[in-house]
Amino acid sequence: MRRLALLAAAGVTALALGVAIPARALIVFDPNNYVQNVLTAARELQQINNQITSLQNEAQMLINQAKNLANLPYSSLQQFLSSIQRTQQLLAQAQRIAYDVQEIDRAFSTSYAPATSNQSNQLLVANAQARWQNSYAATQDALRVQAGIVGNLDTNRIQTSALVTSSQGATGALQATQAGNQILALQAQQLADLTAAMAAQGRAQSLEAAQRAAAQDQGREQLKRFLTPGQGYQPSNVQMFH
Hints:
0% strand, mainly alpha
């Protein structure tokens, strides 16, 4: 028994002397510090997520801006210009008294001027023929302009359909705006055609009215000559055009 006690004491002494654990090697768990570290890491992670979301939003904004700045792939400008040019050419081909203020003034100071006693019978007949020819030509011009405008209707229908389709399929604000502007340009071209038709028709009607007024005035002058002795009235040389 004594021997066992000595061995136990020796073992305890050896453990006390040779197996001493340094204090710095001890691990101490601090719950409060752990919680703070977790919260700090969570806040940093949230900031990173916010930055990622912000970058994604900025990237989407750039994509949207690129779409908004994209040009409309379809343009009907050339077709509009061609239609307007055709109508202008028809107006420019007006026969005899054209759309010119000076030319109109000259005509109404000569062939459409009131008949006077100083004018010969031959001049009265020539003026009447000129007025009739002017009215005839103006009527033909009006019909030609109207025919040209009717010819533009099919082109306008095709362009309208294409522009509406492009507007509905626009990917950005610029494309939608450009499609809208082209539709407005189409309406302006149609209004120009309508104006041209009204101008041509009005020209024909005005010349017809002027012809009738001049014919009535010339008729009165011819009747006056017929009733005045010594005027040398010659039925074969005097004609009335209505």
